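Exam revision sheet. Question 4 asks you to relate a sequence to its structure. Input first:
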Amino acid sequence: MHSTESLPLNAEYSERDIDDVDIERTNKVHRLRPGRPYRASGPKNAQFRSDRPSIARRIVRTVGRFSVVALIGVGATLAWQSYGGEMVKAWAPSLGWLFPTSPSTELQALLKPVALDLAIMKRSVEQLASNQDQLARKQDQMTQAFTALQAAERDISQNILALAPPAPKAANVPPSKPLQPTAR
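Answer key, structure tokens:
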């Protein structure tokens, strides 16, 4: 920000603001070096030019840089998910250790029968569990049937006892005397 006022006639400049060539030519004419801002000596003209951009411009640049970095990160993440690291393996084979390797065909051939056996075993275990549930239900049914049969048996025996005529009372018969051997 340069001041619009003209230079004071008696203004003194520091040596760093004056060209060496101008000093050699004349002591009366002083020119400022190109790119050097004019600095007024009075308090009235206390505007200083700063090499720093304004706050708004710095904020816009910062937000722009952050946005670019964020977009690059999002793009890299999407590429990683889409290609599963194959692209990185092609560009930098030395980074191949970072990615899981797919099993070899020999290992796949060995694992296939094991996987089939596991699937068959899983089905067998499921069938055994189903059979065990069925047996438990049948056992409950048999227990209920047995309890019902016992109750029916008790009812029948009570009915039989109720319908049967009372047993005749035995008459008082004197006990028989044992036979004595006859004398001769």
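Marking note for examiners. Residues 103-159 form one domain.
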